[in-house]
Amino acid sequence: MIEAISWKYRTGSPWREVPEHFGPWQTAYERLTRWSADGTWARLLARAQADADAAGELDWLVAADSTVVRVHQHGASARRVGGNAATRRDAADDDQEGGRHPDQ
Q1: Using 50, 70 and 90 to split pLDDT, how confident is the model at 70?
Q2: Which end of the chain is more exposed for a tag (fewer CB within 10 A), N or C?
Q3: How far is CA 53 from CA 11, 46, 48, 63, in A?
Q4: Is 20 exposed, middle or buried (0-12, 13-18, 19+ CB in 10 A)?
Q5: Any idea where the Insertion element IS402-like domain is (predicted)?
Q6: Rounded Cα–Cα distance for residues 95 and 71 (Å)
Q7: CA-CA distance, 52 to 103, in Å (whole number)?
Q8: How many CB atoms within 10 Å of residue 8?
Q9: Which residues have a Cβ under 8 Å from the Cβ of 16 and sit 6 or more positions away?
Q10: 76: confidence class by pLDDT, cuts 50, 70, 90
């Protein structure tokens, strides 16, 4: 069942497309939801992490790829006033609190 669940999430396919050699898709789905609700997945992950950490095989480095970050659907069509606000510079540049820079 774990192979069926991993296949489903690895491919992004719908449950009904899980190959028959994994068994009925309904069984994999029901097992996933049951194990998620009763904490089985959390215990499996904690055990695997503890074993890997004890063996020195675990690297706790985490990286987030921001190349697919997109604007919210309501922000995509917002009107711009005065051009691109991110690159616009003028003599009245303010700091983040809304006040003038001390050297101006």
Answers
A1: confident
A2: C
A3: 28, 10, 8, 19
A4: exposed
A5: 1-44
A6: 24
A7: 55
A8: 20
A9: 25
A10: low
